[in-house]
Structures are given as structure tokens and as C-alpha cells.
Design a protein that fits this description.
Blueprint: H1 2-10, H2 14-27, H3 33-49, H4 52-63, H5 67-80, H6 85-97, H7 101-114, H8 120-150, H9 154-167, H10 174-190
């Protein structure tokens, strides 16, 4: 049954592999501790094992910063193994890099919900990502302001500042307030 589970895993059939490995564990005599431990280890690694090729390809694409292509591979991997924490982490990372904040947050939260305690390194990374999303969103919202100012487009800067404050009405960001004052000053100077 153990070898049957390996065969099903190589065929990327997670549900059949899971049934076979659970049956192997149940059929294994309790005095065969080493074999039981091997079966248990394989059972824990099964979600990642069945998508190892997809994860390798996604890792390659991540290194090349080809986020959209990596997402396609990760979607395929998660169809095979929906609770593979590594795939969920990589997917959240892709959405983060693509500035798809809501999707990055949704996937990171899902990853946290399925990550086990022994996967603390991934849990910590997912938690850090969730903490970084609000900062990254603000930085992305500031970018059009900074671009307008670098072009000395003071009216465009004010419009971008208005959009920023519409998105973050409670913001008392001193940098944005400085940019706003600078735009008003430059416009009066040019009148």
C-alpha cells in the first residue's frame, strides 16, 4: 500500500495517494515503528510531493520575476493539492509583487489557515507579508504623486494627492502634506 501511495503521488492523484497512505498506515503493525514513521513522514509531505515539479518551475519563474507565469503554474499546482502551503505562499508573493493587494491578502490568510505548527518559517513569512500589505499599498498610492512631482506637473501632483487622500482619508502623512504645499507654492509661483 505504501508503494501504491507513491505511485498515485507520482501520477499527481492526491486523493488516491492519501487513501493508499492512510490504508498503509492502518495496516502497518504497531511494532514496526520505523516503517510507521516513514509512512507518517510521507503522509505529511504528500501535498508537496505531488506538485514538486510545478513548485520547481514556479521557483524558477519567481527567480526570473515572471510573476504572471508563476501564477499560472501555481494555480495548476493548487488544483492538484489545494492545501499546499508552499504553493499558497508563492502565490501570495506573486500577487504582492504584482500589487494585487486584496488577492495577496486572501491567499496569505488561506496559507496561514492551513499551515501547520511545524511550518513555522512559512507561517512567519505569510504573517510578515500580511503586515507589509498596508505599507505597500500606501507606497503604491504615493507613486503617482512622486511621478507627477518629478515631471514638475504640479496640477497632476495635486490630483494624485487628492486621490491619495480619498483612499486614505485619515492620513496625516507629513510627506504628502509637504508635497501638497509644494504643489500649491509652485503653482502660485508660476501664476
Amino acid at each position: 500500500l505504501f508503494y501504491e501511495a507513491i505511485c498515485w503521488a507520482n501520477l499527481k492523484d492526491l486523493s488516491s495517494a492519501t487513501r493508499a497512505i492512510n490504508a498503509a498506515y492502518s495496516a502497518c503493525p504497531s511494532d514496526k515503528r520505523k516503517l510507521r514513521q516513514e509512512i507518517e513522514t510521507f503522509r505529511q509531505q504528500l501535498p508537496r510531493f505531488v506538485i514538486q515539479d510545478e513548485l520547481k518551475e514556479a521557483e524558477r519563474l519567481l527567480q526570473l520575476e515572471r510573476w504572471d507565469e508563476a501564477l499560472q503554474i501555481l494555480r495548476k499546482a493548487l488544483k492538484i493539492s489545494p492545501h499546499a502551503v508552499t504553493a499558497l505562499f508563492y502565490m501570495a508573493l506573486c500577487h504582492f509583487r504584482l500589487e494585487q493587494w486584496d488577492e495577496a491578502e486572501r491567499v496569505a490568510r488561506k496559507g496561514l489557515s492551513v499551515a501547520e505548527k511545524k511550518e513555522s518559517h512559512i507561517r512567519e513569512q505569510l504573517q510578515t507579508m500580511l503586515e507589509q500589505i498596508p505599507r505597500a499599498k500606501r507606497a503604491a498610492a504615493r507613486r503617482p504623486i512622486e511621478e507627477a512631482l518629478s515631471r514638475e506637473d504640479w496640477r497632476g501632483g495635486l490630483r494624485a494627492i487628492d486621490r491619495f487622500f480619498a483612499q486614505y482619508p485619515q492620513s496625516e502623512n507629513p510627506v504628502i502634506l509637504f508635497y501638497q504645499a509644494l504643489c500649491h507654492f509652485r503653482l502660485k509661483e508660476n501664476d
